[in-house]
Design brief:
homodimer; alpha/beta; 434 Repressor (Amino-terminal Domain); Rossmann fold; DNA-binding
Chain lengths: 351, 351
Amino acid sequence: MLKIKPTTINDVAARAGVSYQTVSRVINQHPSVSKNALERVRQAIESLNYQPSNAARHLATQRSKVIGVVSYGTVHYGPAQMLASLEQAVQGSGYSLSNVNVSDLTLEEIAGAIQTLRRQRVDGLILFAPLIGIAHTDLESLCADLPLVITDAEPQSGRAVASIDQFTGGRLAAQHLIGLGHRQIALLSGPLTWYDALLRHQGWLSALQQAGLTPVATLESDWTPASGYRATAELLESGTSFTALLAANDQMALGALRAFHERGLELPRDVSVVGFDDIPEAAFLEPPLTTVRQDFSALAQRSLDQLTACIDQPSAPRHLTMLVPELIVRSSTAAPVMKLEPHSPSLRRKP
Amino acid sequence: MLKIKPTTINDVAARAGVSYQTVSRVINQHPSVSKNALERVRQAIESLNYQPSNAARHLATQRSKVIGVVSYGTVHYGPAQMLASLEQAVQGSGYSLSNVNVSDLTLEEIAGAIQTLRRQRVDGLILFAPLIGIAHTDLESLCADLPLVITDAEPQSGRAVASIDQFTGGRLAAQHLIGLGHRQIALLSGPLTWYDALLRHQGWLSALQQAGLTPVATLESDWTPASGYRATAELLESGTSFTALLAANDQMALGALRAFHERGLELPRDVSVVGFDDIPEAAFLEPPLTTVRQDFSALAQRSLDQLTACIDQPSAPRHLTMLVPELIVRSSTAAPVMKLEPHSPSLRRKP
DNA sequence: CGGAAATTTGTGAACGATCACAGTGTATAG
DNA sequence: CTATACACTGTGATCGTTCACAAATTTCCG
């Protein structure tokens, strides 16, 4: 298990015939270095392929230049996209990312993730785990005095929050259907332990309520196409009558599409469906899916900007950023067939 | 910009009334600590919410306990899945992951990524960037004496490689179509700068050749549904006659599906399509997609096992792991309609 | 050419942990 | 009751870097 020691600042100094401090100055672009020394040190660095040790630097400067991320469900489209966007956004900012993905939304898991990141002495924290059920006081004590930006969580006073306005997104989707004339609308939610899922759900309800409607059915499933399929199949079996379905993400909408197809129902003639996310597949489904697009890279950029602001100036005021998502109308939605027609479009109306 | 200093081993020692060394022993579970001291230190750690500094530890022990990852294209399904699986796999191994996603497959980008990871003094490297065009000698000098596992790259002697056997995957897909009786097969490749794309392509060709066939068309696009759609549309416009299409991933297959739909072609009656990846959506498309499934979590686990073996014992022999992907037959493939029938299934045959 | 100012360079201590070794104190044996 | 082993505890040096300060060198001006 021999391990060859990497070259250090001293090796470079010896090679260049200067003191280690001069090398340090070159690395940190300190102005008081003579042209001569600068050149020699540069060459020594080059020829030894020297890279300064982040750990030693961190120890000496008391800043790790690492931003911690606590994520959840990165196998799903939204979180995966968010993570990739964050990675993109830190490029060139001088920071690097350290991500811990929690497999469960328990307080223990979250606490464990934060502790892992504390051991790394991260300079700040971006939380994009839906924190329903985690008391703010717990979070407070876990993060202590760490600069923190929360994503996908309820706005809390005194905390920097950057979110996509899921509530408005939900309203947008529902209003679209209502505007088309739908009055019998079923809801296919994500797991309501996710803050996003809850907010989209509440957004739907808000719009329905405003139009004097109540959902004809409320289903909850787990974001996957399979669960969306099952839930929709059950709904159809139950004989509930509806003309439109609001799904909390595109994958579940896809499962629903499949359930409709299998029963010979056509979109948008027999049912309208609105998804959420605008996954790359959405435009190419049969039919192309009307959905709500979220701008993850903008969210990532904002989160990062806010966090770095907090790090540089802890006294700075905490902002609350809300990005409004965008409704993308495609072909999975249309006006419902007139109620007066003899062959009513309502599905399997109970006898 | 005041920064409250995190608690150190000395704070704990003072609190517990012992020396810092005793605290260190408790942290590292050294046996020679009296029950009394152990208990007091534990309480001090608890009440101060102490977390040892990884950086200081790293400096003293000369091991960072970090594994570096160089990835490419993590917005796409495969790489994203691989990354999530790796994250899953390191949980509890004592290591943590540091990922750098390169935006370009140039030598400079790769070199930059590796340097970033060298500054972190990673204990080992997992490369899952398709390294076509990067000379082995370059790689050799970049990684010097770092334990290294390569994924998605050509087998190199002396290097540990863990891959999914894309070539065989491609063969499987092609053989399936050939077995069904297809003889006019078009190919829809990914960008051939990706090693995976190239290998799948070669696998297809190999199976076709073995059956005495040549592809009726060869398209190359960029993994996205949109590009798959465009390529397929162009193919249809060109009037080329074919009964089946091999796509290098499911998303491009989806784009193709859409192009067929729009022209009134039905699957699998008029055309058969095989994808690659088995994305969660695949089973719910219209029609459910026949595809080739890759086991990313197995790949991640293997890569990690190999790497840790290399780290613990650099002299250990390098293995070459090949995971065979699995053909998932669904409803997008069927035997072609008989050629003898009056209304031939071949598409837009040139006059 | 002398001396002050400015520029450049070097020295010692610190960061927070571990390692190697040298002390304690207590029990066990002769 | 002394000698020896053993369990436990503490001290100094170290890892690779930066910081604060001091020393050495150069530049400038009268």
